[in-house]
Description:
CATH topology of the largest domain: Alpha-Beta Plaits
Largest sheet: 6 strands, mixed
Order of helices and strands: EEHEEHHEHEEHEHEHHHHHEHEEHEE
CATH architecture of the largest domain: 2-Layer Sandwich
Amino acid sequence: xxxxxxxxxxxxxxxxxxxxxxxxxxxxxxxxxxxxxxxxxxxxxxxxxxxxxxxxxxxxxxxxxxxxxxxxxxxxxxxxxxxxxxxxxxxxxxxxxxxxxxxxxxxxxxxxxxxxxxxxxxxxxxxxxxxxxxxxxxxxxxxxxxxxxxxxxxxxxxxxxxxxxxxxxxxxxxxxxxxxxxxxxxxxxxxxxxxxxxxxxxxxxxxxxxxxxxxxxxxxxxxxxxxxxxxxxxxxxxxxxxxxxxxxxxxxxxxxxxxxxxxxxxxxxxxxxxxxxxxxxxxxxxxxxxxxxxxxxxxxxxxxxxxxxxxxxxxxxxxxxxxxxxxxxxxxxxxxxxxxxxxxxxxxxxxxxxxxxxxxxx
Length: 362
């Protein structure tokens, strides 16, 4: 049953209304549609679906999360926490198919959509007729009716508050937040709930006696800038106050295209690394061509068995999508890394992207 938690929009009628849609345990939810007999059981989607092999959790069902299983956790750790979990392989093509259906629904609600991932998006519903709560309910109902999946929705005057709101009453929630609700609803939350605060920043904040978003706000902008720098310190203060001016971006240009491979067994010879590098380079160039880009910088990343990570890059004289040029450049970068230890991971990234046919800007 959906949980609707509605707060006053703080007199925002007529002002910006940003809606954030976040699918609930998306990969696992899609798998449960295909395997209804698993409903109610702890399900983990990740890697090849074999928890005895290398791989990380992509999505855990809410039943699995009760055991402490979460995204990005090694599958082997998830197995230790929850031996009764059902482990399934990632089927990205199927998830992408569902994602496309969901995004089509959202675009019919408002053409101002920012696609920020396979399972989430922002909508500017400022000009969409009807009260915010009705729009949110209509989106949830239609997504469920047409896909069988539930989603959580947050609506607020900006993207930051909308994203926080969508996470407050998961799964299947609807939360409206206005500026006047920030002290009551946002400040008591863990500092980690603030977008942009990752594990490292969270630890730094805790070391300074800051545990909640309200603690951040209480320190003031000057104190935060002194300790976190002008840009990030100012961001932390404004975000803690619910202030955010980032617009909806309807057209997005990627900064880079990359591929990585983690070996099942740490690679002990150059040939294994070289084969993986050649394959990854081919995949990167293929993706560039499909998306209509050429790139100027090639970067190769190597992670060793002890997790030491090194990268080497080379910038070409001009952008290209020529496979042979990329392969040659990638191997040149690899040659600048001494493979004195077993290799755990190899990666290739193309950056400095430029759309093919795009004119030079002087």
